[in-house]
Design brief:
With about 550 residues, this protein is α/β, with parallel strands linked by helices. It is about 40% helix and about 15% strand. It is built from 22 helices and 20 strands. A 5-stranded parallel β-sheet has the order 1-5-4-2-3. It has a 5-stranded parallel β-sheet with strand order 6-10-9-7-8. Strands 11-15-14-12-13 form a 5-stranded parallel β-sheet, with helices on both faces. Helix 4 links the parallel strand 4 (about 65-70) and strand 5 (about 95). Helix 11 (about 225-230) crosses helix 22 (about 505-530) and helix 12 packs parallel to helix 16. The chain is globular.
């Protein structure tokens, strides 16, 4: 792949772009675990290993100014990233001169963790709005005393299903104001909103307060982590959630949403206007469907993507990679879109609009399969799962390199004897194979293994790709092994949440405490950075 010429931006110039009026995509191409240790506040993480799989989802307009950053010493990663972006059709590329080290040397802030703008915003909201909270101990005591309390878990169902506060009901963030009248019709009921840590508890509770519900509303301090650290047991495997919204509850929710739109100056737009915006090649327009993912699967607007409202506010950089872009939030009633839009506006997004009220627009169903461009210059050589099984059972020397994330490799399993490998480190990390020995690349569905074929063959190694990936192996009925059994790379490819630590590992509680402290400490660091535009609406 050819090297690409890109404009260099000094730290000062890049900061001016970040705070300026024009669109900017700032992309950090390091692996997720490395990124989480230290990065620019508004950089979206798009690791080189998965660049082709992620970039077009968060940066859809190919002519936007796209600046990539990494460590100064990692010129190979930067050059490869620029080359891949150019091959994918991006035409306005730049890079941070001197890497993130130059940013820090200029006196600017670097941040640890992930989704930092959203996390810091949650702390800003609590401090600015005085969002009330309740400790785990107080909640447990009041529940035992038989007080009228409902606990609403504002996380997506998969997180809730993994573990939840006892008797909690799963109601992801944007659904809260939409469904609250059905879930707590008695104004004397105390409503407790929780998440795993802090952000979604705070935003969820404050959403209900902003919507003007008559109940007492509190955020569970430190969420399920706080509950665990207080020594209480969590439920697991639960499936309590919500029913269809009743007509009375919908009418009340629509009235409350209109009040929220007025207070936070939320713009409502028409379908024809959205179509005109989409034709504008000088601006990036995101169509974000904030409804429950199951509703999106059933029917949605062509060209839109599922971005459940609570998660959109919690981790905006997973959905939107372009600062100053235009965001159109889509809903069937306007309630969830209005609530989500109100938070994005407070977060500093200046061009946010709500589109709702025309269900006939929802003419597509299911999830559109992303067409990922494979940049390999040579044909990929494949091996079937059956052929691999037979070869491994023979005396032939074969090595399997697994490109799953380290979490997938550990928890979901891998072919026995397979080496955990990171694509962006290839071919240097394939030293477990001698010259002439076959290396078979695999990944959960085979897609990433196909993308990595060129990387693996750079040094003339003999490489094939397992057709259909590890899923094809398990389809044969073959077992998988778990744990970190053969590691060609360190586990710095992804960020580990506190709950990703083993329950039997004493570091679990330590990780929780460190994470909660980190969230609270973001407020002064954000103030020092000075590039956020969080807004207050008295």
């Amino acid at each position: 792949m050819k090297n690409v010429t890109a404009n260099f931006f000094t730290a000062g110039q890049l900061r001016d772009l970040i705070t300026g009026p024009d669109e900017l995509a700032l992309i950090d191409v390091r692996e997720g675990g490395v990124f989480s240790q230290s990065h620019l506040l508004f950089a979206a993480n798009c690791p080189l290993s998965r660049l082709e799989m992620l970039i077009e989802k968060i940066v859809p307009r190919k002519s936007v100014l796209l600046v990539i950053c990494a460590n100064y010493f990692d010129t190979r990663r930067t050059e490869k990233g620029l080359a891949r972006l150019a091959a994918l059709g991006y035409t306005n590329l730049g890079q941070l001169e001197g890497g993130i080290e130059a940013w820090q040397s200029a006196g600017y802030e670097l941040f640890s963790g992930v989704h930092v703008p959203s996390k810091a915003f949650g702390e800003f909201v609590e401090a600015n709005d005085g969002t009330p909270h309740i400790s785990a101990v107080d909640l447990e005591t009041r529940t035992k005393n038989g007080e009228d309390i409902v606990v609403l878990d504002s996380r997506p169902f998969n997180e809730y299903h993994n573990m939840n506060i006892p008797n909690g009901i799963d109601v992801p963030g944007a659904e809260l104001a939409y469904r609250i009248h059905d879930l707590a019709p008695n104004p004397e009921t105390t409503v407790v909103v929780n998440c795993a840590g802090r952000t979604r508890s705070i935003i969820g509770a404050q959403s209900l307060i902003n919507a003007g519900i008559p109940n007492q509303v509190v955020a569970l301090e430190n969420g399920t982590m706080g509950w665990h650290l207080a020594g209480y047991e969590l439920e697991r495997g639960q499936s309590r959630n919500f029913d269809e919204v009743t007509p009375d509850a919908l009418a009340i929710a629509e009235t409350r949403a209109a009040m929220v739109r007025d207070r936070f100056q939320v713009s409502v737009t028409a379908f024809n206007q959205v179509r005109e915006w989409q034709k504008d090649e000088t601006r990036t327009t995101y169509l974000l469907d904030v409804r429950d993912p199951a509703e999106f699967q059933q029917a949605h607007l062509p060209g839109s993507k599922s971005a459940p409202g609570g998660q959109l506010v919690q981790a905006t950089d997973l959905y939107v990679g372009v600062r100053r872009a235009r965001l159109v939030l889509i809903d069937d009633t306007g309630v969830r879109a209005s609530m989500s839009a109100s938070w994005l506006i407070q977060m500093g997004w200046h061009d946010v609009h709500v589109l709702y009220g025309v269900p006939e627009m929802f003419t597509e169903s299911g999830t559109q399969q992303q067409q990922i461009k494979n940049l390999n210059p040579q044909p990929i050589e494949y091996i079937s799962a059956k052929e691999l099984r037979d070869a491994l059972a023979s005396t032939q020397k074969i090595h399997v390199a697994d490109l799953a994330t380290s979490l997938q490799y550990r928890d979901q399993g891998h072919i026995s004897g397979a080496w955990f490998t990171v694509r962006s480190h290839m071919p240097d990390n394939l030293g477990f194979a001698n010259d002439g020995e076959l290396i078979v690349l695999t990944s959960p569905d085979g897609q990433l293994a196909e993308l990595a074929f060129e990387d693996a063959t750079e040094s003339g190694l003999k490489v094939k790709v397992l057709e259909g990936g590890t899923a094809a192996w398990t389809a044969l009925g073959e077992p998988l092994e778990h744990g970190f059994t053969h590691m060609a790379d360190e586990t710095t490819d992804v960020w580990y949440k506190p709950y990703d630590f083993n329950d039997k590992d004493k570091s679990l509680e330590s990780a929780m405490e460190q994470y909660l402290t980190w969230e609270v400490d973001l407020v002064p660091q954000i103030a020092r950075d000075g590039t956020t535009e969080f807004r207050s609406f008295p």
